[in-house]
Amino acid sequence: MDSLIVWHQDHHIKGNGIIFSKEKTQDNQYLYHVLSTYEDNYENNLISLNNLLYKRIFNDQNEIIIYDSEQEIYKFEQGTINNIFPNENNIILITFKSSENYPVVPFKKLQILK
């Protein structure tokens, strides 16, 4: 199974990202943190940002699609937009809760990078 995800909201805002963190919750589920890029279909950047902030406040649910390469199926989850970092990279932080045990992107130890 992969730790890469794609997501969309109302077919106007979409992105792809990685699961970089997960925590086991008291109700035997997992809380996942996804770091993602996003793009939208709006020409004007101000309209784009206002629309994204509006959806963040009033409708922050988005559909997350995760490809399970072991079973060759797609799994669907509902995520919540938590933070928006609008700049040239358009980064967004999404969380979702699931009973599925998805993998997290492996990080190299700092000592190996030196």
Class from helix and strand fractions: alpha+beta
Strand content: over 45%
The end-to-end distance, rounded to whole angstroms, is: 30 Å
Largest sheet data? 6 strands, antiparallel, barrel
**Poorly predicted ranges:** none
Oligomer: single chain
CA radius of gyration is: 15 Å
Name the overall outline.
globular
Biggest sheet, spatial arrangement of strands: 1-2-3-6-5-4
**Rounded average pLDDT:** 78
Tell me the helix content. Answer: 10-25%
Topology, number of strands: 6
N-to-C SSE string, H for helix and E for strand: EEEHEEEH
| Number of helices, where a helix is a run of at least 4 consecutive DSSP H or I residues | 2
Number of domains in the coordinates? 1
Characterization of this structure:
With 114 residues, this protein is an alpha+beta fold. The protein has one domain. It is 16% helix and 51% strand. The protein is built from two helices and six strands. It has a six-stranded antiparallel barrel. A hairpin with a 5-residue loop joins strand 2 (13-24) and strand 3 (30-40). It is globular and about 40 Å long. 18% of the residues are buried.
